[in-house]
Amino acid sequence: MSDSVSVDKQLEGILEEFKRSKLRPKIEKGLDVSAEVIKRNLEAAVGEGDSYPHFSRSWFVKKDYQGVRYVKNSKKVGGTDKKGNSKQVPLAAYLEHAVSSPHKGFIKRTVRQSKEQAINAFKDVFSKGE
């Protein structure tokens, strides 16, 4: 019985090493490529304008964590209160969730429309066999 446990542990260790050394770099690269596809589609969905920095040019990919990518926007709007405290709100949050926003849900719609492209971009990383 103890031999089967040690074989199981050894196999688990080998698979874990394979995943770490071979698959993890491809997964990370695939996530980078997929996030860039979504970022480009969000930039295109917004269009151009006159403000600086413009909302469409404020998208970025946050890569702080392994196995996760966040596409975010840094544009904020608002002002200060009477005491001079900042009351700025992320424009993406306002446009996506505000009841009065005519663009409500545009980020969700754009990401859903980009899903197939992002998946294909991720798959392409693995099919290249690097």
How would you characterize this protein structure?
With 130 residues, the chain is mainly alpha-helical. The protein has one domain. Helix content is 57%, strand content 9%. It has helices spanning 2-46, 91-97, 106-127; strands spanning 59-62, 70-73, 76-77, 89-90. The strands form 2 sheets. A two-stranded antiparallel ribbon has the order 1-2. A two-stranded antiparallel sheet has the order 3-4. A hairpin with a 7-residue loop joins strand 1 (59-62) and strand 2 (70-73). Helix 1 (2-46) crosses helix 3 (106-127). It is elongated. The relative contact order is 0.14. The mean pLDDT is 86.
What is the rounded Rg? Answer: 21 Å
Tally of individual domains: 1
Strand content: 5-15%
Provide mean pLDDT, rounded: 86
SSE order, as H and E?
HEEEEHH
Main-sheet strand order equals 1-2
Multimer state: single chain
Globally, the shape reads: elongated
Unreliably modeled segments: none
Question: How many strand units?
Answer: 4
Helix fraction by DSSP (H/I, runs of at least 4): 55-70%
Distance between the termini: 40 Å
Helix-strand category: mainly alpha
Give a short account of the largest sheet: 2 strands, antiparallel
> How many H/I helical runs?
3
